[in-house]
Design brief:
The complex is a heterodimer. By secondary structure, chain A is α/β, with parallel strands linked by helices. Chain A is about 40% helix and about 25% strand. The chains are: A alpha/beta, B mainly alpha.
Protein backbone atom coordinates (compact mmCIF):
# COMPACT_ATOMS: atom_id res chain seq x y z
CA UNK A 1 0.00 0.00 0.00
CA UNK A 2 1.14 3.54 -0.79
CA UNK A 3 0.54 5.43 2.45
CA UNK A 4 1.05 9.19 2.55
CA UNK A 5 0.35 9.61 6.29
CA UNK A 6 1.09 6.99 8.93
CA UNK A 7 1.13 7.24 12.71
CA UNK A 8 2.75 4.74 15.03
CA UNK A 9 1.45 4.42 18.61
CA UNK A 10 0.79 8.16 18.65
CA UNK A 11 -0.01 9.35 22.18
CA UNK A 12 -0.80 12.72 23.72
CA UNK A 13 -1.16 13.14 27.47
CA UNK A 14 -2.23 16.28 29.33
CA UNK A 15 -1.35 15.84 33.01
CA UNK A 16 -3.84 13.14 34.12
CA UNK A 17 -5.79 13.02 30.88
CA UNK A 18 -4.88 10.94 27.83
CA UNK A 19 -6.25 12.69 24.77
CA UNK A 20 -4.79 10.32 22.17
CA UNK A 21 -3.85 6.81 23.20
CA UNK A 22 -1.45 4.77 21.02
CA UNK A 23 -3.19 5.57 17.76
CA UNK A 24 -1.80 4.01 14.59
CA UNK A 25 -3.51 5.16 11.40
CA UNK A 26 -2.63 4.59 7.77
CA UNK A 27 -3.86 6.96 5.07
CA UNK A 28 -3.58 5.90 1.46
CA UNK A 29 -2.37 8.38 -1.12
CA UNK A 30 -5.23 9.84 -3.19
CA UNK A 31 -7.94 8.68 -0.80
CA UNK A 32 -10.41 10.40 1.49
CA UNK A 33 -9.90 9.18 5.04
CA UNK A 34 -12.78 9.86 7.42
CA UNK A 35 -11.81 10.37 11.03
CA UNK A 36 -14.84 9.65 13.11
CA UNK A 37 -15.58 9.91 16.79
CA UNK A 38 -17.72 11.68 19.37
CA UNK A 39 -16.73 15.07 20.75
CA UNK A 40 -13.53 14.81 22.79
CA UNK A 41 -12.45 11.56 21.13
CA UNK A 42 -9.04 12.98 20.19
CA UNK A 43 -9.61 13.67 16.48
CA UNK A 44 -8.54 17.30 16.61
CA UNK A 45 -5.55 16.54 18.84
CA UNK A 46 -4.35 13.88 16.40
CA UNK A 47 -4.70 16.33 13.53
CA UNK A 48 -2.90 19.03 15.51
CA UNK A 49 -0.01 16.64 16.06
CA UNK A 50 0.15 15.91 12.33
CA UNK A 51 0.47 19.66 11.73
CA UNK A 52 3.03 20.24 14.46
CA UNK A 53 0.62 22.41 16.46
CA UNK A 54 1.22 20.18 19.45
CA UNK A 55 3.94 17.65 20.04
CA UNK A 56 3.19 13.98 20.78
CA UNK A 57 3.95 12.65 24.26
CA UNK A 58 5.10 9.41 22.65
CA UNK A 59 4.87 7.59 19.35
CA UNK A 60 5.72 8.92 15.92
CA UNK A 61 4.20 9.82 12.60
CA UNK A 62 5.29 10.33 9.04
CA UNK A 63 3.80 12.67 6.46
CA UNK A 64 4.89 11.93 2.87
CA UNK A 65 8.17 10.50 4.14
CA UNK A 66 8.95 13.46 6.41
CA UNK A 67 9.11 13.81 10.18
CA UNK A 68 8.43 16.69 12.55
CA UNK A 69 10.22 18.85 13.57
CA UNK A 70 13.14 18.25 11.17
CA UNK A 71 11.04 18.42 8.00
CA UNK A 72 8.46 20.91 9.32
CA UNK A 73 8.70 23.41 6.46
CA UNK A 74 8.70 20.79 3.65
CA UNK A 75 5.77 18.92 5.27
CA UNK A 76 3.67 22.04 5.77
CA UNK A 77 4.26 23.10 2.16
CA UNK A 78 2.31 20.01 1.13
CA UNK A 79 -0.57 20.37 3.57
CA UNK A 80 -3.64 22.54 3.42
CA UNK A 81 -5.35 22.54 6.79
CA UNK A 82 -8.42 23.64 8.61
CA UNK A 83 -8.52 22.83 12.32
CA UNK A 84 -11.44 23.35 14.74
CA UNK A 85 -12.41 26.86 13.66
CA UNK A 86 -11.32 29.24 10.95
CA UNK A 87 -8.19 31.24 11.80
CA UNK A 88 -7.95 34.69 10.25
CA UNK A 89 -6.64 38.22 10.68
CA UNK A 90 -9.63 40.25 11.80
CA UNK A 91 -8.07 43.48 10.51
CA UNK A 92 -7.75 42.15 6.94
CA UNK A 93 -10.28 41.35 4.24
CA UNK A 94 -10.90 37.78 3.12
CA UNK A 95 -8.78 38.37 0.03
CA UNK A 96 -5.95 39.95 2.06
CA UNK A 97 -6.04 37.02 4.47
CA UNK A 98 -5.63 34.58 1.61
CA UNK A 99 -2.94 36.78 0.09
CA UNK A 100 -0.86 36.42 3.28
CA UNK A 101 -1.08 32.63 2.93
CA UNK A 102 -0.34 32.89 -0.80
CA UNK A 103 2.82 34.89 -0.10
CA UNK A 104 3.95 32.32 2.48
CA UNK A 105 3.34 29.47 0.05
CA UNK A 106 4.95 31.47 -2.79
CA UNK A 107 1.99 30.90 -5.10
CA UNK A 108 0.95 32.96 -8.14
CA UNK A 109 -1.52 35.80 -7.56
CA UNK A 110 -4.44 34.04 -9.29
CA UNK A 111 -4.37 31.33 -6.59
CA UNK A 112 -6.39 33.63 -4.30
CA UNK A 113 -9.22 34.08 -6.81
CA UNK A 114 -9.16 30.36 -7.55
CA UNK A 115 -9.59 29.51 -3.85
CA UNK A 116 -12.29 32.16 -3.32
CA UNK A 117 -14.26 30.80 -6.27
CA UNK A 118 -13.83 27.20 -5.12
CA UNK A 119 -15.56 27.96 -1.83
CA UNK A 120 -18.10 30.44 -3.26
CA UNK A 121 -16.69 33.50 -1.52
CA UNK A 122 -15.52 35.47 -4.57
CA UNK A 123 -18.06 38.29 -4.23
CA UNK A 124 -17.27 38.81 -0.53
CA UNK A 125 -13.48 38.77 -0.91
CA UNK A 126 -13.09 42.49 -0.21
CA UNK A 127 -15.06 42.50 3.04
CA UNK A 128 -13.24 42.54 6.37
CA UNK A 129 -12.98 38.98 7.70
CA UNK A 130 -14.27 40.06 11.13
CA UNK A 131 -17.56 41.07 9.51
CA UNK A 132 -18.10 37.64 7.94
CA UNK A 133 -20.88 35.38 9.18
CA UNK A 134 -19.85 32.06 10.78
CA UNK A 135 -20.49 30.23 7.50
CA UNK A 136 -18.42 32.74 5.56
CA UNK A 137 -15.56 32.44 8.06
CA UNK A 138 -15.79 28.68 7.64
CA UNK A 139 -15.54 29.09 3.87
CA UNK A 140 -12.60 31.46 4.28
CA UNK A 141 -10.85 28.85 6.42
CA UNK A 142 -11.49 26.25 3.74
CA UNK A 143 -10.23 28.60 1.03
CA UNK A 144 -7.03 28.99 3.06
CA UNK A 145 -6.68 25.21 3.19
CA UNK A 146 -7.34 24.79 -0.53
CA UNK A 147 -5.06 27.63 -1.60
CA UNK A 148 -2.56 26.36 -4.14
CA UNK A 149 -4.36 22.98 -4.28
CA UNK A 150 -2.05 21.17 -1.84
CA UNK A 151 -1.46 17.40 -2.21
CA UNK A 152 -2.67 16.75 1.36
CA UNK A 153 -5.71 18.29 3.04
CA UNK A 154 -6.40 17.99 6.75
CA UNK A 155 -9.90 19.20 7.54
CA UNK A 156 -11.36 19.16 11.02
CA UNK A 157 -15.16 19.26 10.89
CA UNK A 158 -15.12 21.64 7.90
CA UNK A 159 -18.90 21.87 7.52
CA UNK A 160 -19.56 23.18 11.05
CA UNK A 161 -21.57 26.37 10.92
CA UNK A 162 -22.65 25.97 7.31
CA UNK A 163 -26.28 25.93 6.20
CA UNK A 164 -27.65 22.72 4.60
CA UNK A 165 -26.92 23.87 1.06
CA UNK A 166 -23.45 24.98 2.14
CA UNK A 167 -22.82 21.56 3.72
CA UNK A 168 -23.94 19.85 0.51
CA UNK A 169 -21.77 22.16 -1.61
CA UNK A 170 -18.63 21.76 0.51
CA UNK A 171 -19.17 18.00 0.83
CA UNK A 172 -19.35 17.68 -2.96
CA UNK A 173 -16.28 19.86 -3.32
CA UNK A 174 -14.27 17.71 -0.88
CA UNK A 175 -15.47 14.54 -2.57
CA UNK A 176 -14.34 15.83 -5.95
CA UNK A 177 -10.87 16.93 -4.81
CA UNK A 178 -8.95 13.64 -5.21
CA UNK A 179 -10.14 13.27 -8.81
CA UNK A 180 -9.81 17.01 -9.47
CA UNK A 181 -6.11 17.25 -8.63
CA UNK A 182 -5.03 13.99 -7.02
CA UNK A 183 -4.95 15.05 -3.40
CA UNK A 184 -5.34 13.06 -0.21
CA UNK A 185 -7.92 14.22 2.33
CA UNK A 186 -8.08 13.52 6.05
CA UNK A 187 -11.44 14.75 7.25
CA UNK A 188 -12.92 14.50 10.72
CA UNK A 189 -16.50 14.53 11.87
CA UNK A 190 -18.64 13.21 14.68
CA UNK A 191 -21.33 12.25 12.19
CA UNK A 192 -20.96 8.93 10.43
CA UNK A 193 -23.78 9.87 8.04
CA UNK A 194 -21.60 12.68 6.73
CA UNK A 195 -18.37 10.71 6.57
CA UNK A 196 -19.85 7.73 4.77
CA UNK A 197 -20.97 9.98 1.92
CA UNK A 198 -17.43 11.02 1.07
CA UNK A 199 -14.82 8.77 2.67
CA UNK A 200 -13.00 5.80 1.13
CA UNK A 201 -11.48 4.69 4.42
CA UNK A 202 -12.50 5.33 7.96
CA UNK A 203 -10.92 5.47 11.39
CA UNK A 204 -13.10 5.47 14.51
CA UNK A 205 -11.76 7.07 17.68
CA UNK A 206 -13.25 7.02 21.15
CA UNK A 207 -11.60 8.45 24.27
CA UNK A 208 -8.32 8.65 22.39
CA UNK A 209 -8.29 5.00 21.29
CA UNK A 210 -8.63 3.83 17.70
CA UNK A 211 -11.52 1.35 17.70
CA UNK A 212 -11.54 0.62 14.01
CA UNK A 213 -9.60 1.34 10.84
CA UNK A 214 -10.51 0.17 7.35
CA UNK A 215 -12.93 0.69 4.48
CA UNK A 216 -16.66 1.20 4.99
CA UNK A 217 -17.32 -2.34 3.70
CA UNK A 218 -14.86 -3.72 6.22
CA UNK A 219 -16.63 -1.75 8.95
CA UNK A 220 -19.95 -3.34 8.01
CA UNK A 221 -18.46 -6.86 7.95
CA UNK A 222 -16.53 -6.27 11.14
CA UNK A 223 -19.60 -4.99 12.94
CA UNK A 224 -21.80 -7.87 11.85
CA UNK A 225 -19.17 -10.40 12.96
CA UNK A 226 -18.79 -8.67 16.30
CA UNK A 227 -22.55 -8.74 16.82
CA UNK A 228 -23.19 -5.03 16.61
CA UNK A 229 -26.66 -3.83 15.67
CA UNK A 230 -27.46 -4.44 12.01
CA UNK A 231 -31.00 -4.24 10.75
CA UNK A 232 -32.58 -4.49 7.35
CA UNK A 233 -32.99 -0.77 6.82
CA UNK A 234 -30.80 1.27 4.55
CA UNK A 235 -27.03 0.90 4.83
CA UNK A 236 -26.63 4.36 6.34
CA UNK A 237 -28.96 3.52 9.22
CA UNK A 238 -27.01 0.32 9.82
CA UNK A 239 -23.72 2.14 9.88
CA UNK A 240 -24.97 4.78 12.30
CA UNK A 241 -26.18 2.01 14.62
CA UNK A 242 -22.91 0.14 14.25
CA UNK A 243 -20.94 3.25 15.09
CA UNK A 244 -23.06 4.02 18.15
CA UNK A 245 -22.92 0.43 19.35
CA UNK A 246 -19.18 0.42 18.97
CA UNK A 247 -18.83 3.64 20.97
CA UNK A 248 -21.27 2.47 23.66
CA UNK A 249 -19.53 -0.87 24.02
CA UNK A 250 -16.18 0.86 24.37
CA UNK A 251 -17.61 3.34 26.90
CA UNK A 252 -19.04 0.46 28.97
CA UNK A 253 -15.73 -1.39 28.90
CA UNK A 254 -13.95 1.81 29.86
CA UNK A 255 -16.23 2.37 32.85
CA UNK A 256 -15.58 -1.19 34.00
CA UNK A 257 -11.83 -0.65 33.68
CA UNK A 258 -12.11 2.57 35.72
CA UNK A 259 -14.10 0.75 38.48
CA UNK A 260 -11.44 -1.97 38.71
CA UNK B 1 12.75 39.48 3.22
CA UNK B 2 9.54 37.68 2.27
CA UNK B 3 8.63 37.32 5.95
CA UNK B 4 9.22 41.04 6.52
CA UNK B 5 6.91 41.93 3.59
CA UNK B 6 4.28 39.54 4.97
CA UNK B 7 4.54 41.09 8.43
CA UNK B 8 4.19 44.59 6.99
CA UNK B 9 1.06 43.49 5.11
CA UNK B 10 -0.39 42.09 8.32
CA UNK B 11 0.03 45.49 9.98
CA UNK B 12 -2.61 47.00 7.69
CA UNK B 13 -5.40 48.64 9.70
CA UNK B 14 -3.81 47.69 13.05
CA UNK B 15 -2.63 51.25 13.66
CA UNK B 16 0.88 50.21 14.74
CA UNK B 17 2.68 52.27 12.09
CA UNK B 18 0.58 55.46 12.52
CA UNK B 19 0.84 55.10 16.31
CA UNK B 20 4.63 55.19 16.48
CA UNK B 21 4.85 57.87 13.80
CA UNK B 22 2.37 59.93 15.84
CA UNK B 23 4.54 59.45 18.92
CA UNK B 24 7.44 60.94 16.94
CA UNK B 25 5.35 63.87 15.69
CA UNK B 26 3.78 64.51 19.11
CA UNK B 27 7.20 64.38 20.78
CA UNK B 28 8.54 66.89 18.24
CA UNK B 29 5.50 69.14 18.73
CA UNK B 30 5.94 68.97 22.52
CA UNK B 31 9.58 70.03 22.15
CA UNK B 32 8.65 73.06 20.06
CA UNK B 33 5.76 74.14 22.28
CA UNK B 34 7.59 73.56 25.57
CA UNK B 35 10.73 75.36 24.45
CA UNK B 36 8.85 78.30 23.01
CA UNK B 37 6.87 78.73 26.26
CA UNK B 38 9.71 78.05 28.74
CA UNK B 39 12.69 79.21 26.70
CA UNK B 40 13.92 81.87 29.13
CA UNK B 41 13.36 79.74 32.23
CA UNK B 42 15.18 76.80 30.69
CA UNK B 43 18.14 78.79 29.43
CA UNK B 44 18.56 80.44 32.84
CA UNK B 45 19.01 77.10 34.58
CA UNK B 46 22.53 76.57 35.99
CA UNK B 47 23.28 73.95 33.34
CA UNK B 48 25.18 73.75 30.09
CA UNK B 49 22.78 74.82 27.23
CA UNK B 50 23.15 71.42 25.53
CA UNK B 51 22.28 69.65 28.80
CA UNK B 52 19.22 71.90 29.11
CA UNK B 53 18.15 71.11 25.56
CA UNK B 54 18.60 67.37 25.87
CA UNK B 55 17.71 66.49 29.45
CA UNK B 56 15.05 69.02 30.44
CA UNK B 57 12.75 68.11 27.54
CA UNK B 58 13.46 64.40 27.45
CA UNK B 59 11.15 63.40 30.34
CA UNK B 60 7.90 63.87 28.44
CA UNK B 61 9.39 62.55 25.18
CA UNK B 62 10.46 59.40 27.02
CA UNK B 63 6.99 58.92 28.54
CA UNK B 64 5.44 59.26 25.07
CA UNK B 65 7.93 56.78 23.65
CA UNK B 66 7.36 54.34 26.51
CA UNK B 67 3.59 54.31 26.07
CA UNK B 68 4.03 54.14 22.31
CA UNK B 69 6.22 51.05 22.74
CA UNK B 70 3.82 49.41 25.20
CA UNK B 71 0.74 49.95 23.03
CA UNK B 72 2.48 49.09 19.74
CA UNK B 73 3.90 45.87 21.21
CA UNK B 74 0.41 44.94 22.44
CA UNK B 75 -1.07 45.60 19.00
CA UNK B 76 1.60 43.80 17.03
CA UNK B 77 0.70 40.44 18.59
CA UNK B 78 -2.92 41.17 19.41
CA UNK B 79 -3.79 40.91 15.72
CA UNK B 80 -2.25 37.41 15.76
CA UNK B 81 -4.36 36.31 18.73
CA UNK B 82 -7.57 37.98 17.57
CA UNK B 83 -9.13 35.43 15.23
CA UNK B 84 -6.36 33.04 16.39
CA UNK B 85 -4.44 33.74 13.20
CA UNK B 86 -1.23 32.72 15.00
CA UNK B 87 -2.41 29.08 14.89
CA UNK B 88 -2.71 29.30 11.13
CA UNK B 89 0.86 30.56 10.99
CA UNK B 90 2.00 27.47 12.89
CA UNK B 91 0.29 25.34 10.22
CA UNK B 92 2.04 27.09 7.36
CA UNK B 93 5.60 26.69 6.10
CA UNK B 94 6.84 29.87 7.73
CA UNK B 95 9.51 30.21 10.39
CA UNK B 96 7.83 31.45 13.58
CA UNK B 97 11.11 32.81 15.03
CA UNK B 98 11.60 34.79 11.78
CA UNK B 99 8.10 36.14 12.17
CA UNK B 100 8.95 37.23 15.72
CA UNK B 101 12.19 38.82 14.54
CA UNK B 102 10.37 40.76 11.81
CA UNK B 103 7.83 42.13 14.28
CA UNK B 104 10.72 43.15 16.53
CA UNK B 105 12.51 44.83 13.60
CA UNK B 106 9.38 46.68 12.45
CA UNK B 107 8.86 48.14 15.93
CA UNK B 108 12.57 48.94 16.25
CA UNK B 109 12.62 50.85 12.96
CA UNK B 110 9.40 52.69 13.83
CA UNK B 111 10.77 53.66 17.24
CA UNK B 112 13.97 54.85 15.58
CA UNK B 113 11.93 56.99 13.17
CA UNK B 114 9.97 58.44 16.10
CA UNK B 115 13.18 59.25 17.99
CA UNK B 116 14.73 60.80 14.87
CA UNK B 117 11.64 63.03 14.40
CA UNK B 118 11.85 64.16 18.03
CA UNK B 119 15.55 64.85 17.76
CA UNK B 120 15.09 66.77 14.51
CA UNK B 121 12.93 69.13 16.55
CA UNK B 122 15.73 69.39 19.13
CA UNK B 123 18.16 70.05 16.28
CA UNK B 124 16.00 72.88 14.98
CA UNK B 125 15.76 74.47 18.43
CA UNK B 126 19.46 73.91 19.08
CA UNK B 127 20.41 75.73 15.90
CA UNK B 128 17.92 78.59 16.19
CA UNK B 129 17.35 79.13 19.93
CA UNK B 130 20.48 78.16 21.90
CA UNK B 131 23.04 80.90 22.56
CA UNK B 132 25.48 81.27 19.68
CA UNK B 133 28.29 78.73 19.69
CA UNK B 134 26.76 76.47 22.35
CA UNK B 135 25.00 73.95 20.08
CA UNK B 136 27.02 70.74 19.62
CA UNK B 137 25.91 68.42 16.85
CA UNK B 138 28.02 65.51 18.17
CA UNK B 139 26.36 65.73 21.59
CA UNK B 140 22.91 65.67 19.98
CA UNK B 141 23.77 62.64 17.83
CA UNK B 142 25.27 60.76 20.78
CA UNK B 143 22.24 61.53 22.96
CA UNK B 144 19.90 60.40 20.15
CA UNK B 145 21.73 57.07 19.99
CA UNK B 146 21.76 56.88 23.81
CA UNK B 147 18.02 57.46 24.13
CA UNK B 148 17.37 54.86 21.40
CA UNK B 149 19.63 52.25 22.99
CA UNK B 150 18.13 52.77 26.46
CA UNK B 151 14.60 52.43 25.01
CA UNK B 152 15.35 49.10 23.38
CA UNK B 153 15.20 46.87 26.51
CA UNK B 154 11.59 48.02 27.10
CA UNK B 155 10.69 47.35 23.46
CA UNK B 156 12.39 43.94 23.50
CA UNK B 157 10.71 43.02 26.82
CA UNK B 158 7.25 44.13 25.68
CA UNK B 159 7.49 42.21 22.38
CA UNK B 160 8.50 39.13 24.37
CA UNK B 161 5.56 39.32 26.78
CA UNK B 162 3.07 40.27 24.10
CA UNK B 163 4.10 37.22 22.05
CA UNK B 164 3.14 34.98 24.97
CA UNK B 165 -0.09 36.56 26.21
CA UNK B 166 -3.29 36.67 24.16
CA UNK B 167 -4.89 39.04 26.69
CA UNK B 168 -4.19 42.64 25.73
CA UNK B 169 -5.31 43.94 29.13
CA UNK B 170 -2.67 41.84 30.88
CA UNK B 171 -0.04 43.34 28.59
CA UNK B 172 -1.25 46.88 29.16
CA UNK B 173 -1.20 46.12 32.88
CA UNK B 174 2.41 44.94 32.63
CA UNK B 175 3.27 48.09 30.69
CA UNK B 176 1.64 50.42 33.23
CA UNK B 177 3.17 48.50 36.15
CA UNK B 178 6.56 48.74 34.41
CA UNK B 179 6.13 52.48 33.95
CA UNK B 180 5.03 53.17 37.54
CA UNK B 181 7.66 50.95 39.15
CA UNK B 182 10.25 52.38 36.78
CA UNK B 183 9.29 55.92 37.83
CA UNK B 184 9.61 54.96 41.49
CA UNK B 185 13.00 53.31 41.07
CA UNK B 186 14.68 55.39 38.36
CA UNK B 187 16.36 57.84 40.75
CA UNK B 188 18.01 55.07 42.73
CA UNK B 189 21.73 54.45 42.25
CA UNK B 190 21.46 50.72 43.00
CA UNK B 191 22.92 48.97 39.97
CA UNK B 192 20.79 45.87 40.50
CA UNK B 193 17.69 47.88 39.58
CA UNK B 194 19.05 48.20 36.06
CA UNK B 195 17.72 44.70 35.36
CA UNK B 196 14.32 46.43 35.19
CA UNK B 197 13.99 47.47 31.52
CA UNK B 198 11.72 50.42 32.31
CA UNK B 199 14.25 51.80 34.82
CA UNK B 200 16.91 51.75 32.11
CA UNK B 201 14.65 53.67 29.75
CA UNK B 202 14.01 56.30 32.43
CA UNK B 203 17.70 56.80 33.30
CA UNK B 204 18.47 59.47 30.64
CA UNK B 205 15.37 61.36 31.80
CA UNK B 206 16.54 61.62 35.42
CA UNK B 207 20.15 62.46 34.54
CA UNK B 208 21.28 66.10 34.84
CA UNK B 209 23.69 65.93 31.93
CA UNK B 210 23.50 64.56 28.41
CA UNK B 211 26.61 62.42 28.63
CA UNK B 212 25.83 58.70 28.13
CA UNK B 213 26.57 56.33 30.99
CA UNK B 214 28.58 53.46 29.52
CA UNK B 215 27.37 51.01 32.18
CA UNK B 216 23.76 51.74 31.20
CA UNK B 217 24.57 51.40 27.50
CA UNK B 218 26.15 47.97 28.04
CA UNK B 219 23.31 46.75 30.26
CA UNK B 220 20.73 48.08 27.76
CA UNK B 221 22.29 46.17 24.91
CA UNK B 222 22.65 43.01 26.98
CA UNK B 223 18.98 43.14 28.05
CA UNK B 224 17.80 43.89 24.52
CA UNK B 225 19.58 40.84 23.13
CA UNK B 226 18.61 38.69 26.12
CA UNK B 227 14.88 39.40 25.71
CA UNK B 228 15.18 39.03 21.94
CA UNK B 229 16.94 35.69 22.33
CA UNK B 230 14.30 34.50 24.80
CA UNK B 231 11.53 35.54 22.42
CA UNK B 232 13.11 33.74 19.48
CA UNK B 233 13.66 30.61 21.57
CA UNK B 234 10.07 30.62 22.81
CA UNK B 235 8.76 31.20 19.28
CA UNK B 236 10.66 28.13 18.18
CA UNK B 237 9.99 25.84 21.11
CA UNK B 238 6.64 26.77 22.62
CA UNK B 239 3.30 26.22 20.92
CA UNK B 240 -0.12 27.80 21.41
CA UNK B 241 -2.21 24.77 22.33
Amino acid sequence: MDYIITTEQLTKKYKNFISVNKVSIHIQKGSIYGFLGPNGAGKSTTMKMLLGLTSPTSGSFMVDGGHFPDDRISILKKIGSFIESPFFYANLTGRENLDIIRKILELPENAVNDALELVGLAEFGNQLAKKYSLGMKQRLGLAGALLGRPPILILDEPTNGLDPSGIHEIRNLIKSLPSLYDCTVLISSHMLSEIELIADDIGILNHGRLLFEGSLDELRQNAVQAGFAADNKSNSANLEDMFLSMINKDNTARKQRVRL
Amino acid sequence: MNTLIIELRKEKRTGVIPLLLSVGVLGAAYVFVNFSVRKDTLLNLPLDPMDVLLTQLYGMIMVLNMFGIVIAACMVYNMEFKGTAIKKMYMLPISIPKMYLCKFLILTVLLLIAIVLQNLALLKIGISDLPTGTFEMDTLLIFTAYSFITSMPTLSFMVLVSSRSPNMWVLLGIGVAGFLSGMALASSNVSLLLVHPFVIMLKPAVAMNAQPDIEIVIISMAETFLFLGMGLWMAKKLRYE
